[in-house]
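Priority: medium. Attachment 1 of 2:
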């Protein structure tokens, strides 16, 4: 075990299973967002939680503005953790941009992954009519980055509300806001740029790992069209439209998230055994 990586990415491992299940947080978040969902799988899996460098309780001294200028740098974090723990055929559960980060990692070293679970994924956040609807125009995303620079706290408040899209859950909004505010603004802005201007559509035909796509209802960040596009272009994918609304079902609707992941993994296991 590479202790340097374990410390750098604040890696936590628990659970009773032989097979690993790795949870990756989305933009602006850390491993604690997975607490409820991860706990549900600890009896059957070896649960792996981690923080990307620059987030949560990772080693901020290890942050490299060149490495993390693209999602490939974050995919290397995933691969580093897999190597440090000597993982094989793990279930990778990624929220939001981590869906694409996990996919990139699987293209580089597929032996680490048996399954990809994408929660609220988008292969491209920009609209590219008429073939693709990502949900945003370039001017909107540039405005978002400008607000981060001018008024980071104001951006965090606004973005937390947009992400959750659920006015009946003020405590969750505050929790998300706090996570955004605890991140270094320069690092957060660079991660935002790497996230929102990424386009992984060309990578989809090369993906070999079976994939579950969980798409929320009324998700402003990753519309249903993004999930449907993924399903059409990932040859070994299953698409599930969730009843959960917003962009963070693992926080707002953990029971449904757990149930859909478990159902898929059980069905996949039965299929393999058959």
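Attachment 2 of 2:
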């Amino acid at each position: 075990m590479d202790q340097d990586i374990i410390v750098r990415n604040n890696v936590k491992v628990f659970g009773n299973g032989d097979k690993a299940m790795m949870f990756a947080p989305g933009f602006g978040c850390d491993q604690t967002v997975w607490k409820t969902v991860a706990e549900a799988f600890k009896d059957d899996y070896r649960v792996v939680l981690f923080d990307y460098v620059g987030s949560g309780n990772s080693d901020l001294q290890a942050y490299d503005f060149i490495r993390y200028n693209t999602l490939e740098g974050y995919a290397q974090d995933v691969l580093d953790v897999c190597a440090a723990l000597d993982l094989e055929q793990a279930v990778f559960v990624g929220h939001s941009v981590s869906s694409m980060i996990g996919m990139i990692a699987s293209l580089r070293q597929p032996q680490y992954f048996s399954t990809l679970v994408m929660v609220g994924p988008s292969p491209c956040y920009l609209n590219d009519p008429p073939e693709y609807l990502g949900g945003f125009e370039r001017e909107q995303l540039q405005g978002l980055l400008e607000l981060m620079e001018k008024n980071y706290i104001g951006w965090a408040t606004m973005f937390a509300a947009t992400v959750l899209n659920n006015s009946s859950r003020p405590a969750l909004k505050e929790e998300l806001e706090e996570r955004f505010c605890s991140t270094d603004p320069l690092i957060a802005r660079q991660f935002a740029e790497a996230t929102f201007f990424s386009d992984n559509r060309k990578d989809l035909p090369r993906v070999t790992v079976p994939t579950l796509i969980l798409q929320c209802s009324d998700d402003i960040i990753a519309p249903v069209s993004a999930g449907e596009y993924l399903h059409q272009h990932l040859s070994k994918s299953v698409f599930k439209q969730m009843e959960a609304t917003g962009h963070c079902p693992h926080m707002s609707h953990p029971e449904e998230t757990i149930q859909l992941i478990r159902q898929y993994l059980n069905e996949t296991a039965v299929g393999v055994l058959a």
